[in-house]
Amino acid sequence: MKIITKTLLNISLLLIAATLNAQFYAESINDIKVPKNFIWGTALSEYQVSGAAYCRNSNWSDFETTLPERSGDACQFWQRYKDDIALMKQMGVQSLRFSVEWCKIEPTEGKFDADALQHYVDVCDALLQANITPMITLHHFVHPSWFEQKDGFADPANIHYFERYCAYVFEHLSDKVHLWCTINEPTIFTFQGYARGVFPPGRTNLISAWHVLRNMIHAHTRVYHKLKGMKNGKDAQIGLVHQYLKFHSYTSWNPLEMIPGLLFNALLNDSVMEFLKTGEFNGWFGVHYNAHTTKNNDFIGLNYYSRATIKASLDLSNPVDAAHYPDEIMTDMPYAIYPQGFYDALIDLKALRIPIYVTENGIADAKDEHRDLWIRSYLAAMDKAIADGADVRGYYYWSIMDNFEWDMGYEKKFGLIEVDRQTQERKIRTGAQFYVAVLQNALANSNSI
Ligand code: GCO
Fold first, then answer.
1. What is the structure's pLDDT at 21?
2. Alpha-carbon distance 98 to 2, whole Å?
């Protein structure tokens, strides 16, 4: 009986895949053609895999005391990185995007911790020995408590602290690392922390959200030019990471869906896209920044998951809700599988005329039912975008292993590798096999066009 149900389920999934993603579905790894030297990687961030136990005195370790679920010691990556890197090597991972934690490097204002720096030197050495190219993110939602207490990125006078920390890390690691992400998703950091209040510092003030976003864009620009002027700067590839997220109204006529969509699109996508294209940031409420140049990135990091479909609801306490159409497959996050949006984002970014790294893409799927479909359809969408001229240089699956999904805790399973947090045992998921095959194939022969 079980087998019959499973077979029927598999057949129906295949049918859905065939109709829904007719245009975007990779039957085999040979359907995915990438340029020479393309990098196949995976991504993580320190706080999400090491937790508050290893990243104390940070905005997140302070804030999560108010959350129902705490990060604890997460996957203990801080101490288990050697074994995890060995597992990555075995899978064929060519590059790891990870974050350096500012709260470890500079736990007290102006005092840099040599042991923490050494830890990251060791991580880079372990990666290089395993033939895995390191890609560093300098800010992935987390910073030291002392920086937060000065009002963090809400005060433009604080940008120089961030610049100093970035320069310190770059000075010590740029001999080993050539791929650098300055800030991860300034829009999400701002929206979640200053508009929705579900990330630190837990504020709900739209005007200040626009100011914070402007300051982060400014901080990125300053760090970019600072690092480019340092030793190894010219050879390094440095870029911002933007989550390309578009809001979509469920109906084409309901103002309750369209008005929030206008605001969310402006704050979460359009303002940053405009900055990337023109060097000028125009926010609401007169918030403005002009970098006076468009050369503020060597590449753009694209995090793409899905679109957000908003539907008006009769529940007055929650008048708009995350929705999906009946024929769409939901992930465990409040959005559906939507490879078309990935293609569209890549084509939009093509206009920047700089290389693109897909710095994050992956599915939360605790039952591991749709991971295979996600990977096949999103890689097919990327393949089409490449064929249509998008200069994509690498793809990083989010995430190498299950981890702490911020305000949503541990329930969201993004990992290629399943982590049992009781035993800390790691197991490669069945749904990851297609990606592992892509990795293995890329290792064996460069799958170039
Ligand atoms: C983000 C982050 C990651 C998330 C991932 C899954 O986009 O919020 O960069 O830290 O874990 O995107 O939601």
1. 47
2. 40
